[in-house]
Amino acid sequence: MEIIYIVLLLVVIIMIFNLKTNSNQRIDKLEAHIADLTNTIRQYTLNRNNEPPKPAPRMDRPWEAPEMKQPEPPKPVPPAPLPVPKPVEPIPAPEPIKVERQPQVITDPIHRPIKTSDAPVPPPPPRKTYREPEPEPELSFFESHPDLEKFIGENLINKIGIAILVLAIGFFVKYAIDNNWVGPVGRVGIGVLCGGILIGIAHRMRNSYTAFSSVLVGGGLAILYFTITLAYHQFHLFDQTASFIILIVITIFAVVLSLLYDKQELAVVALVGGLASPFMVSSGHANYNALFIYLVILNAGLLVIAYYKSWRVLNAVVFGLTVIVFGAVLTSLTGPTYHTGLLYASILYLLFFGINVANNVKENKAFVASDFSILLINTALYFSVGLYLLTQMGQQDMRGPFTAALGVVNLLLSFILFKNKKVDTNILYLLIGITLTFISLTAPIQLNGHYITLFWAAETVLLYWLFLKSKIQLMKLCSLVVWGAMLISLFMDWINLYYAPGSYDRPALLLLPIIANKGFITTVVAAISSYLLYLQIKRDETPQVYGMAIPGILYQSMAFILLFSSGVLEINHQFTSRYPGTNLNILYLTLYTPAFVYLFYMVGKRVSGIALNWRVGAGLIALAIAVYLFSLPAIFTLEYTMLDNHKAATSHFAAHWVAAVVVALLFYQLIKIARAELDEDLKATISWILSIAIVVFLSAELCLASTLLFFGHGVTIDRIETVYIKVGLPILWGLSSFALMILGMRNKARTLRIISLTLFAVTLGKLFVFDIKDIPPAGKIAAFFCLGVILLIVSFMYQKVKKILVEDEAKKIED
After folding, report:
1. What global pTM score does this model have?
2. Cβ(565)–Cβ(596) under 8 Å?
3. Which residues are bridge partners to 107 per DSSP?
4. Residue of 575, 496, 557, 562 lying closest to 525 (CA atoms)
5. Tens of pLDDT, residues 179-227
6. Greatest CA span in the chain, whole angstroms?
7. Structural domain boundaries in the chain
8. Are 220 and 202 in contact (CB under 8 A)?
9. Torsion on CA atoms 77, 79, 82, 85, rounded to nearest 10
10. Which residue among 169, 173, 580, 636 has its CA within the 20 to 30 Å range from the CA of 490?
């Protein structure tokens, strides 16, 4: 069993040392490049010594020229033929000269006379700036080790060799033990001696063979660890306390060696051995308090190392092993030890936070992805452990305060780091994001139902307000994310409150107070929150989040939809619960929809904060009218049900007449918008659509009124409708066409006159083709009399305004 332990530790050590292989190879490459560069510089220097003399220095840089004799003042020299070059001879060093702005003659290396200009000498060219080389791409194994023989000889063989050496020592010791060559003390002494010899040899070779010495030190430490373990378990030479102290001393010694040699792999071996020490001398009796104290002390030592050394691999390895050890112990905790586990989990959480930020803060370095990953994992694991332990302790009510407290802790940590002006801002954003996350999670963890929605509705507005004050983009992003979570929570509240299973079978159990209930109030608060968020987005100078534009109209529209939905859900629930089976909810919803749109539009015209442009206003009005017209069949059915079955009082139908008045007002507003904002081509199309809609609206309303008025005394609904369709509709359509003709003539609107004539034609066709059969004589007389009178009046009006029509047609032709 001990041999298996030795083999496992050796495998771990080999893996650790192999992490450094690529770094060593890159260092070797760098040294080779430096050697090549040195040789190049040396050859260039030798070549320069054999070159002919350089040209004379520029006269505008006397500080760069060698010492020269002052020449006599130059005299004008006529152009001379080019002299035959002479053999190059050494030129005596001239004395320094003073630069004067006058023509002068100097001699170049081949003795050619040159006349200088008195113009100012141009400035020297700018020096080239040094650019940092771009990082090399990651290479594959064979690309980074082109010389496979060298890799095997210098890196792989030494690791395999030390592993085989340790195994050989182990087999030798085992053989000696099996043959009783040495006693227990001698056996332990052999192990300590072998480990010490390996460490001593490594110390002697630390400068000339750095990588190999590190491997020897790791092997020596492994031998020492397992020798003491065998001394305790197998030979009982030391008690548990003494063995544990010796292992701690070995760990401290290994840490000192790692700092002395500046070797990260030695520190990894030391701390891995330190974490394994309690289990090496375990007696099978759990002492959680002592184990947690040891973990805290060990990681406190790691914090000291991390402050001076940027050894990220060490931090990651120890963090992972500590999590494994703590997780294994966590599953074995019992009731009395839950508080102890939560206490030490909190201490380890803070320690690992310090370990992963200490060196970066000290050296003002930028945080990398691995730093952020460990910080996030550390926070998530601690949060999970805290919730688990609080649940096990039966203190579920404390999970919300625990979550909020964790957010406050991260806020304090971000404030402490913020005081260091040179700290990487990314870590501040990370901590602020963690803070906002935990504050947002407090509501769903601690609260229930609609309280979560109310909490998030307030938080989303507060976060965007904080962004406007601090300009921290992360707060803006969190505000929008929380707003989305609020909507999801609100939809869940609607399902639970209004559409829970059995809501129609047992309405009394789900009956909510009118208006003053959590469903209506929560929806209204969510609408107000969305609108306030929209106002803050309007105040934002750059309504973007990480390069993506924020559509403010989305939040304004959602505020309107939520406010409208609050009334729809309330009306539907109250009438469905209080008047089951009557469909009165449809009646009052057809009143609520146009009334809401009309009031919202009229208030928006007077309040700038909710004002709508004419296109949006016209669209809302048209949508409300369309919903009303499409709901008319349901209204007809409801009226027949109320008259035949008396399931609900007929007085409720008064709500429909109020709705009809509101729809008439909406038609009026829509006509005003069309006349003021549309061009002539669109006006013609809209005139047709509005005329048809108004005629349909009046026809349906008059039918409902006649049914309600004449029902009873042996008259059936079918008979009333038949008479209305054959007599009432022709009269109504005739009057409508007459009204359209009057409007068309008064406003010189040719489209309205054409619509009027078209409606006249449809009315006459309907009257003579469908309505002349099976109608009472009185009905025929009334219908024909009214239509005849109307047609005569229309004909007279055309003759009366013939001049206007001619001028109108001429104007159209000219256009």
Report:
1. 0.60
2. no
3. 113
4. 562
5. 776 677 776 777 778 777 777 877 776 666 666 666 677 777 777 777 7
6. 143
7. 1-48+155-284, 582-814
8. yes
9. 10
10. 580
